[in-house]
């Protein structure tokens, strides 16, 4: 469990408060990390195996068989090490790669959770991947038409700063409150409004 029950409740209540006055549908999604990064660990292990093999080749006279044995030991050892200490793998990876993985996860969830299938096309997803310090806000077509992307970009920027300061809960609540006035202005509640998506915080494993 990433969040405590009372933390989830606070976020859910804030979403309910928003949707009481707006026809927009906001979904909160959080994951600890967006990938297991096993492929990345494998690539790092291969790189280190060749690096150490290169060093051994010049520092020590060894046969081809011995070199292969060393390579096997180095590869298995480093791969097991990075699998066990996955957070170290994350620190070694480029930020752009981690954010790419997190963005793929976010877009995948937008469709998996059916946010693209609402009748009103007014769905919004706030996606947070904690280990990558990554925030993405994805909006459906009607939201995109009326609210400029710059608004969401600024919101993501401020939200990300809160994540980096380990102030996740305050950041999430602040992001919802900040978007509230804009959503009420452009998408006021309708008499026939239907709540199609859950207001509960969705935690991904």
TrEMBL record:
Q: Report domain TPM positions.
A: 105-178
Keywords for this entry?
Membrane, Transmembrane, Transmembrane helix
Keyword Metal-binding attributed: no
Q: Which Pfam families does UniProt cross-reference here?
A: TPM_phosphatase (PF04536)
Q: Does the keyword Membrane apply?
A: yes
Q: Which residues cross the membrane?
A: 39-58, 70-90
Name assigned to this protein:
Membrane protein
